[in-house]
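Repro case for the chain-ordering regression, as requested:
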Amino acid sequence: MKKNLCLIPLYVWSAVFIVFPLLIVLYYAFTRDASSGMSLSFESFSRLADPMYLGVILRSFKIAVIATLVCILCGYPAAYILARSNSRSKFIIVILMLLPMWMNFLLRTYSWLTLLEKSGLINSFLSLFGVDPIIFLGTEGAVVLGTVYNYLPFMIMPIYITLLKLDQSHLDAAADLGANPFQVFMKVTLPFSVPGVLSGVSMVFVPSVTTFVISQIMGSGNVTLIGDIIEKQYRVVNDWHFGSALSVVIMIIVLAFMYFINRGDVEANNGNGGRLLR
Amino acid sequence: MKKLSKCYIGLVLAFLYLPIAVLMVYSFNASKSRGVWKGFTFDWYRQLLENESIMSSLYTTLICGFLAALVATVIGSMAAYGIAKAKSKSSFILSVAYVPMLNAEIVTGVSLMLLFTLFGLELGFFTMLLSHITFCIPYVILAVLPKARQLDWSLYDAAQDLGCTPMRSFWKIMFPELLPGILTGFLLSLTMSIDDFIISFFTTGNGVNNLSIEIYTMAKRGIKPEINALSTIMFAVILAILIIANVGAAKKDNNKKRSVRI
Amino acid sequence: MKKLIALILCAAMLLSLAACGDDRETIKVYNWGDYIAPGVIDKFEEETGIRVIYEMFETNEDMYTKIKNSNNAYDVLIPSDYMIERMIAENLLAEIDMANITNYDKIDAEYKNLSFDPENKYSVPYTWGTVGILYNKTMVNEAPTSWGALWDGQYKDNIIMMNSQRDAIGITLKYLGYSLNTLEAAELNAAKEKLIEQEPLVLAWVVDEVKDKMIGGEAALALVYAGDAVYCKGENPDLEYVIPSEGSNIFFDSMCIPANCENKAGAEKFIDFMCRPDIAAENAGYIGYSSPSKAARELMGEAGEDPTAYPDITKYDLEIFSSLGDKTKIYDELWTEIITVRGM
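-- result from build under test --
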């Protein structure tokens, strides 16, 4: 009974502000402009078969996956150190990690340009040692960097809060039973933090698939992602039908990915992480 | 090991603050462009305070951010708790709640605008707030859910066995456990709300502009250094609050320790 | 925490009260971001007692989407040429009663009755400008005179293009000697080939970042709007602007009144006010884009004679973009093909 009560606000909110607009998107995806209003059509989806769009979709997923992995690799140790630290200032450090995100997105990204441009600060510094200017921008690497920069805190936060609960006694017990630090980490710490990592993956991977400003600015317009193309359908071409269809396809692919995440989440919950608690 | 850990955290912070430092330094640049350095000036700070349009959009941004984060945190935390309590996968409602995150922002923005139009609402502060709550909810759920899944339900049952009402056992036992997640969810929501341009643009009207709209629309003619100045001030203020809060907490801590000793 | 919440709620209520508490006559103006001199609106409010509710957009299409699909009514819009043509065709604009625009005669004849509004019933020019090449005198061997400079191999990684399909394809068509409004498949295909050929030479395709990049000496050549060139030259004197000999695009941003406006009389007063030479001069001086009023230019001193902003437009083959309607898709697919080639 309590469970239902807790979920009611979300159900109501979702029905009005998520499902309803979603139906509007689906409506546009499956119709096209005809002389007499709109008519049912799969035209937008058949356009997607063009290898040109498939290439862009693949590339978007590739960059999102790489960025997510980099976020895990860099963010996990940071979250772990903070969660295990006894320092009173750790809460401040956690907030300090989010604070850069309160500076406007465009300004932050422009600052990266100031750093990385051919005539930028890093190249000026390198030129003191006689290094020729390096073109950092306009590559997939630059887009990954921009994505990691913007989403890293979203990976650190959830991992950090799950690890807060990790009991030192469990770690000691494992060590007493003969596990080396690496084994302790793999068998106890890591499984325990899986729900946090999965939350982080959702918060990093999902939005980075459809990002477009990062790719435009850091990629110097060289690296086109699916977000650029969707955005253009709405804001330049005014072809909402095609834009909606693209969006629906991306949504389905990412949802399939999320399904696996959820399964992993429940498994982790019923597996090591859950057992440990009992 | 301790030192290594500190170094690593320092490194992560350095990465996050490198561009912010550049941004702050350029708020004192006499040139309007970040392309050249023309010397030191305080002019942009003076002009910022005279710029009514920027100040009023800052006000809108903060109010909208706090309210959106607040409502989203309540709805999202309740939902995460409910999902964890049901112990089911609940993947359907979760997938639905994720939709605003899955969709390209422009799709969310335009579809919400169409929704409000359909309802006959005039776009303005209220519609923008509703939209912000909508895209903040999934972040709260994602922040609280891992914590909710870690909850030990036997404690909750035990409390009730000992005569606590379900409400009381929730507030006494479960809520403190969830608190870090809830706070994180609130902060993430605030962050998302402050930074949003596209969805805000399509769902606002009636002269209500937030800071992002101000900045993105001025980008065409060059972002004014006043905005860098504003960011620098915002950062300084938040940092000051943090330090004061931390010092205050430290004093409290000491007092506690002393009273324990007595 | 509770106190904080109460405080926020109070503030929110004050905000909504402040919005309702004023029962002065109002007009709602929808303009590009940072596209009006500060203080001009205050002057208008003082002189007429009409309160201005001001909103900004980033692109013509964003503005169009909101006008067409929301319940919000505006009184004055400032779209560009091709968008005005489209909005007239879709009956989204109201005819302006030019008798109420007493300063209409201050607008020069060559900026009236243009292709997008042939009888000049719906729009009053606000600013105009050209598209050309901004180059850094210290980084080029000779001053460019042709679009060909953007295809010159010696400037590899020193060229910045506009990441905007209509502009980039448009100037390529001009370079090839075609109209920038063409829908001929062969001509468009030739432009596509030309842009793909240019790809290895280009350092970046950007929109708004071009100004900072050129001021900082990031590249030798860039495709820009004249208004941006005026700004860049002010910050870096090494920069110079040229309209290539093959001809280019000329654009207009004009004031219009939407069909569903709620205060047409107020809107006309605002448009009239913006045409008054002293106000137009102040405004153009701030924006840097060209004013269509000779009377205003005379008040602007040197800035009113700057050849970057005020070239002799009779010397060049300058075309206005026309609305492509559904055909925008043709340009889009072409452009998508070009951009997917990049960096792959």
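Ordering looks correct now. The first strand of chain A starts at residue 31 and ends at 34.
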